[in-house]
Amino acid sequence: MTSPMNRTTDRSRAAWTRLFTTHGLPCDDALLATFVGRRGQESLAEHVHLLPGHSVDELFDEACGYLDGPDSPPPYPVPGAAELIARLHADGVPIAVVTSGLREHATALLELVGGAGLFKALITAEDVAVGKPYPEGYLAGLAALGVEPAYAVAFEDAPAGIAAAKAAGLRCIGITTTHDAEALDAADRAVADLTGINWHQLAYDRGGLRWPRSLMTRPVGNRRPGRRPGSPWPVRCPTPGATCCWSPP
Fold first, then answer.
1. What is this structure's pTM?
2. Domain assignment of residue 60, given as a range
3. 61 in a domain, yes or no?
4. At residue 153, does pLDDT exceed 50?
């Protein structure tokens, strides 16, 4: 499951900066950092006291209006994202997007990496009661995919997202596109981008992640470990009738 496939931080920072400066307030990196990886309304709720006479919803709508302004930095795909998603889709690996953004924005951004049709589930800000760093979004994504946390890997670029993924029981790879590796130290591994990510190696425990060996030794329901035809990677179904995904031996 993944969130940071497109680099949108510059655009978001510009929108939040314009919101605060338009209302005569200073806006520095420390303030902007409170918005990264989180639902905008929840972040704004922490600062709305600085803007008397305005509601969170009103301010959020104003900030969203700045996203597509003429001076707004354009979003662009994280290197390797489109290629990784295409490979996973071709191999039949189910993918979900779990994002703090709005569904309208997320759907448009997915066009940069191949389109929403490549994903089995899209969990957005509207789908959860509480956003990252709480795990609700990732738990909804797991339910939509029909897999257990131990069979899933999250890709995240912000501490809030990593915390949400880990709280949901997922392994997590941090991507240092918005934070340095030290800030993402709660992830199981950090990479500069998605170039060269090999899902088969990752699932086969050659990527530095640790997976429960018991997952490959115990039967689930009336099913036992099998192998995808023509592939050395075992295939497991976490529950009878659920979508199969690769797991390590």
1. 0.78
2. 6-66
3. yes
4. yes
